[in-house]
Write a structure and sequence with these properties.
about 35% helix; about 450 residues; 5-stranded mixed β-sheet; 13 helices; 2 domains; Rossmann fold; homodimer
Amino acid sequence: MRLSRYFLPVAKETPSEAQIVSHQLMLRAGLIKQQQAGVYVWLPFGLKVLRNIEKIVREEQDRSGALELLMPTMQSADLWRESGRYDDYGAEMLRIKDRHERDMLFGPTAEEVVTDVVRTYIRSYKDLPLNLYNIQWKFRDEVRPRFGVMRGREFLMKDAYSFDIDADSAVDAYRKMFLAYLRTFQRLGLRGVPMRAATGPIGGDLSHEFIILAKNGESAVFYDSVYEDKDWTTTDISFENDDASKSARKAMVDEVLAAYAATDEMHEEEQFLANVPEDRRREGRGIEVGHIFFFGDKYSKPMNAKVMGKDGKEHVLQMGSYGIGVSRLVGAVIEASHDEHGIIWPTEIAPFNLGIVNLKSGDTACDELCKKIYDLATAKGLDPLYDDRDERAGAKFATMDVIGVPKQVVIGPRGVANGIVEVKNRKTQEKTEMKIEDFLKSIE
Amino acid sequence: MRLSRYFLPVAKETPSEAQIVSHQLMLRAGLIKQQQAGVYVWLPFGLKVLRNIEKIVREEQDRSGALELLMPTMQSADLWRESGRYDDYGAEMLRIKDRHERDMLFGPTAEEVVTDVVRTYIRSYKDLPLNLYNIQWKFRDEVRPRFGVMRGREFLMKDAYSFDIDADSAVDAYRKMFLAYLRTFQRLGLRGVPMRAATGPIGGDLSHEFIILAKNGESAVFYDSVYEDKDWTTTDISFENDDASKSARKAMVDEVLAAYAATDEMHEEEQFLANVPEDRRREGRGIEVGHIFFFGDKYSKPMNAKVMGKDGKEHVLQMGSYGIGVSRLVGAVIEASHDEHGIIWPTEIAPFNLGIVNLKSGDTACDELCKKIYDLATAKGLDPLYDDRDERAGAKFATMDVIGVPKQVVIGPRGVANGIVEVKNRKTQEKTEMKIEDFLKSIE
């Protein structure tokens, strides 16, 4: 993309309305614009990051065997009356009447809608296990929306729902998602530490929050540093349904959960001190980026979602649900990874991976070299951002840094005359001179 | 995808609640499930088609130079009060109060929100021309939603908004979208014929509907068959902003519009007969799949969206807006392309491009050959659907046909013994026998 044709409103000043660094940087670097309290327009640059995160989340859901569908934002109140949640949910649910005075709501979650889908079509144990997910906008009418996309009202969530014939199989579905989440967050450049959690308005028997460390996190967290050791992206995890795969999943999850990890809500200091050697104790603040639940027949029973079992009898489905805050992750990643110059994107989600800074737009030699690099990088499948604007060098450097382009190449008249470009690493701020032909080879 | 692991609820019977063939087939072939009147769950198969269409629409918007952003579904009423549309819009607008009794609405369109974005950041003629688009769910509270996704309430729309310094430049932006639409619909396997249109609640000076022919179309249409001649997908269209490109665009659009095309609303029989030779007269019914508008300062003036011009003076922005009904297109494609067996997908949007029918699941030789074909097709980047279920042959054939897999290979014990498979063309229903090795080569 040529910056002169892009829409990237970068601000020099830190916006006064933002209290935390991710919100400040998302406004300054032109990712979002507030439309109303807790509701945002995703500007082109922000949308690019959001889609990159969404893509990884989707790939890992697909890998785990979950199937993607798409539920509407508008849900009928009748389904929520069946489950009993319509009256229970409280003021966070956005209640709406249509022109015929029928009660609807903007889905804050979708257990009822998906259970209705499954009870309509699924008749037999042969169609199970089944896990259906979607990535869709949700609305929760927070009393005081704040911290930008971290606690917004309209937000993008990945929500998956598992359906099984019995509790054993449902717990296996839970473990599949548990492992898929460990992979997902690590691919995003984060450590999502699973912590035992209260079940809240979703309900149920078993629940874990996945939490990443960040100074501005909403909860205090305590965990064993073994959570930082394992590379889940290279761990071989089978998501097949044979017995050996199931046992392997159980062993992996049990091993993970043997180590201590808790938020302040569930923290037991004595246990923490007793079970975690001093050098492995980690304390800090954390941000919830995922939450998984096993809740058995909480929805399937009142909604009468049953299948015929092998035994010729009807069985009420056993369910779980599994959320990832996709839009929230954009803020969480920035909280976890930034410096005084701006955002530092983890490689896998960086919205542009090569920045081209033309120090003298209009100078024929500079323009030609920049265009050559731009065309070559584009042809090689990189996603370059070329600052071809007529701007001061300082402003160009600041823009590349605040938006966090991981690798930047700087082209100026003197360098071009000497056959040299400067290559900068955004994270380390290290600059190295390279011969032009060496640089061109490096992106080939 | 293996059908045994997929969620594809195909029904034998034509559902009684559906009046038109696209709605019937979308229910029968497991694309959608109604959640409430005019609101649908997109099941995995339907979502796959929807995403394929969305992808082509996006590629052509990007090609034209438009930039993608994402606006929220919830919009504040205040912006609509600024433009004067809050009171004008009528009962189709879904009006909502949040917990603090603030007025919001579920966006039926987004002129106000995008104008607010532009007035916030764009200051100078140097930042123009600018065209911002998004693909987002909209809501229009139809009195009588019907015909499935063709006249739903919650629907997916691509809406683009152009901003220019003066009317000349804005008309050029209009022409860019006009040409992009011709390309888009043709890539979808359709002919979108541009017809002069009334401007309705969007308002404005210049407007065209893009209409495809279909028996169940909502309007009668009359046009010159020259609209069916040109291949826009291979026509070289420059979307650059130099004068030569602008002139070329004007010439192309003028040539298109010289031919007659009108819906019954705007039809003038005398002109039609006078200007179109008898053998080129086309009459029928059509479905609107796109609508474009140029409306000057209708929104920018009341909302005070101005930029500094070259002349050092402030200019009120000139705007246009450009919609494509993305979810509606799924129904429109089916209306335009089906037979008594089911859906016939145009190649570019077919959700699976190779069907593998195992006539005897459980038979070692059949299973092995099917798996070999499946693995090879997958490795070659095809998207095969393998019917590995324990079902009657008739049911398997009917499933492949109703969901419209363009090419199907049938593997049975007798064929395998003789080194032969049967290959079926969904559209022509033609079957040919092929040697196994020849078939394998054909997908390599």
